[in-house]
Structure formats: structure tokens, C-alpha cells
Design a protein that fits this description.
This protein has 211 residues and is of the alpha+beta class. Helix content is 21%, strand content 36%. The chain has helices at 3-25, 64-75, 151-160, and strands at residues 50-52, 61-62, 78-85, 90-94, 97-110, 115-129, 135-144, 167-168, 171-177, 182-188, 192-193. Strands 1, 2, 3, 4, 5, 6 and 7 form a seven-stranded mixed sheet that branches. The protein has a two-stranded antiparallel ribbon with strand order 8-11. A two-stranded antiparallel ribbon has the order 9-10.
Length: 211
Amino acid sequence: MTSENTKATEDRAALTAKTEAWVKGWHSSPDAPFSLDQIADLYVKDHRLFSYDFGRPHNGVEGWDKAAPYYEGFMAIPKRWALTSGGDLRVNLQGDIAWTTLSLSGEGETRDGAPIDLPEARVTLIFERQEDGDWLIVHEHGSASIPFPDQATTSRLLGAGPPPTGQFSVAGRLRSDHQTQKLSMIAEAETMVIKVPGKNLTKPGRSTKTR
């Protein structure tokens, strides 16, 4: 194995460990309340950091000076919270930039005992190699699955069967109620017609012309 291959192997191992530490770090319980120290060493500490979290704000958080208090406030909401990796961690390495991706699930409890359930989520972490060789997160993007399409339709869309026809309804929205410290996943109905071969793409209230 060449020195270049050895270095790449070492980098991939480091990035895997960092991503696993990120998953483990987002943890809080009555016996072990969340501390920013659990994740702080994983991030750059300047304006380069940009975060799209699972919840609000919709336009993200820019800079460590804003992200740090946001993370602490976010993790103060649940009484108990933990993420679990889906076991599909991928590491991509391009010079001094790398990104990792994985699916996740989240489970916890609000301060008043209501369950918090995030069954299908995923995250992308973008790392930058620092001058000392360490890898630190400069961007994170977490998202949750919306309720459509269902599993059978997904299989067809990925080529396991004929293309689907018909309509799908419902869109997902994550609501955070800070006054009552409740987090819940709610669905808001909105009919959508998804374009398939020979069909038109339409949405209620919008006109679509076929050329």
C-alpha cells in the first residue's frame, strides 16, 4: 500500500469516528444532561460553520457564535433525546474536503412526558481538513422524511416495477412548540399530482399548459 493510500485510509477512519461521535454527542437524559462539550470539538469555531438543523430556523444558522447557543437551547427542550445511526454511513473524500452521509432515527421525551419520535431522518456532514490535519465540520444538513411516496411506490420509482399513476396527498411539517416544550410531527394535507410518462404536473390553484 502506498503512502497516499495509507493516508486516505487514515482519513476515512478519522471521518468515520468523527461522524459516529456526532451521532453519539446529540444525547441528553435526566442522568446525563446535554453539554455543548459533547459536540463542540467536532466543529470549526468561526463564521464558516453553517447548519441546517432538523427543526427551525428554516434558513439555517450561520457561524459558531450563533450555532453554539442554538444547540444548547435546542437540547434543553427535551427531557430525554438520542439519535441512532441507520448503519449506512458513507465517507467521501476529495482532497481537503470530505463529506459523510447516513440515515438516522431519533427518540426522546418532552419535559411533560410526551414522546418525541423522529423515525426517518438523514444527515450530511461536510468536513474541512485543518492546518494541523484535523477534520472539522463546516456544514451540517439534517432532514426528515416526508410521508410520500410510500415504500411500494418508492420501489417502483427506483426501477423495481412500472411507473406509478394517480395522486399522492400529504406533506410533512416539523413543529416546535417552545412554550409548552413539545415537539411533534404533524401532517398538512395538500394534493399533488406527480408527473409520470404521459401525464401532466399540476397543483391546485395553478394552471398548467401542455405543449
